[in-house]
Design brief:
five-stranded parallel β-sheet; 15 helices; Rossmann fold; alpha/beta; Zinc Finger, Delta Prime, domain 3; 322 residues; single chain; 5 strands
Length: 322
């Protein structure tokens, strides 16, 4: 009924809680965006609401399952940010739903997406509900970053971790949807383990072109200082810089892996493998390059001057080329 990719540990745990009737009233699904947290929340709710579950999973055929699939199940209420935040009025509205009594043995679910975007007032209001929830009521909070959530809320939940999806799985999903081998390789590389990101990027024709431009530039190092500064400016103005740096990192990672193992199958950028085989660096130089890239990634994530960081990185890579 619901396909959840590469999250076996989380799925198996949730199925086991249903099987053993050891349900918690409050779950917190956390992990990177686009890895199946919302899908898992709906699948979990459907498994408990299903009229004829199969192996503790929703059948996908009964009336309740069809309602879940069509997003019109009255027993599932989803709350999302109103603008940039989840406001206290939204939590108060949730509390008003709790006043309605349910039939004996009936269950209902409140799924709060982007729970880390709750205001302090909203989180405090929700906390009161979580402390004494009505019977048969389940809360599933979904967060890309639980570090932004109040510890008082996090500590009360059953935490379920969702991991980045392996690149090979993302590549397979994209190929199944008709993506070319070259584009699937480019998209899966920069998706950061997120199927959601990958499916969005799949529609972006610039992704492949930008990857090719970056790899072509790196292949021609060393080059003139003016050329370095020109490309840094282009990256800053026209590229998704975090994704671009992921591509740069993958290239030098491939060089290090190839020189250490000589195994083609371990190379990420398979479509550029001929160029990877031709470049020769000493391991210490490659490790220094990778350190420089990681430093730049961290600096930009911490809001350092982006153009200056890119210029410094590319100049360092150029100076260390051989």
């Amino acid at each position: 009924m619901f396909k959840i990719n590469a999250q076996d540990r989380a799925v198996d745990f949730l199925k086991k809680t249903i099987e053993e009737k050891s349900l918690s009233h409050f779950y917190l699904f956390y992990g990177p965006p686009g890895v199946g947290k919302m899908t898992a929340a709906l699948a979990f709710a459907a498994g408990l609401l299903c009229e004829a579950p199969e192996n503790y999973e929703a059948c996908g055929k009964c009336a309740n399952c069809r309602r879940v699939l069509h997003a019109n199940c009255p027993n599932i209420i989803t709350i999302k940010p109103d603008g940039k935040v989840i406001k206290i009025d939204q939590i108060r509205e949730l509390q008003s739903y709790l006043k309605f009594k349910m039939e004996q043995g009936e269950s209902r679910f409140f799924i709060i997406d982007d729970a880390h975007k709750m205001t302090r007032e909203a989180a405090n209001s929700l906390l009161k509900v979580l402390e004494e929830p009505p019977g048969g009521t389940f809360f599933i909070l979904i967060s890309d970053n639980i570090d932004l959530m109040p510890a008082t809320v996090v500590s009360r939940g059953q935490l379920i971790k969702f991991n980045p999806v392996p690149r090979s799985v993302i590549d397979e999903i994209l190929r199944e949807k008709g993506c070319s081998k070259e584009k699937a390789a480019a998209v899966s590389l920069v998706s950061r383990g997120s199927v959601g990101n990958a499916l969005t990027l799949m529609e972006d024709e610039e992704v492949v072109a930008q990857r090719e431009n970056i790899i072509a530039f790196l292949a021609h190092l060393p080059t003139r200082r003016a050329k370095i500064l020109e490309f840094a400016a282009e990256l800053d103005a026209n590229y998704d810089v975090p994704l671009g740096l992921d591509i740069v990192f993958s290239c030098y990672r491939d060089l290090l892996v190839w020189q250490a193992t000589g195994k083609d199958k371990m190379i990420i950028n398979q479509d550029f493998i001929d160029g990877i085989r031709k470049r020769v660096f000493c391991p210490g130089t490659l490790l220094k390059k990778l350190d420089d890239i990681i430093y730049a990634q961290r600096a930009i994530s911490n809001n350092a001057n982006r153009l200056l960081t890119l210029e410094t990185l590319l100049l360092n890579l150029n100076d260390q080329s051989s």
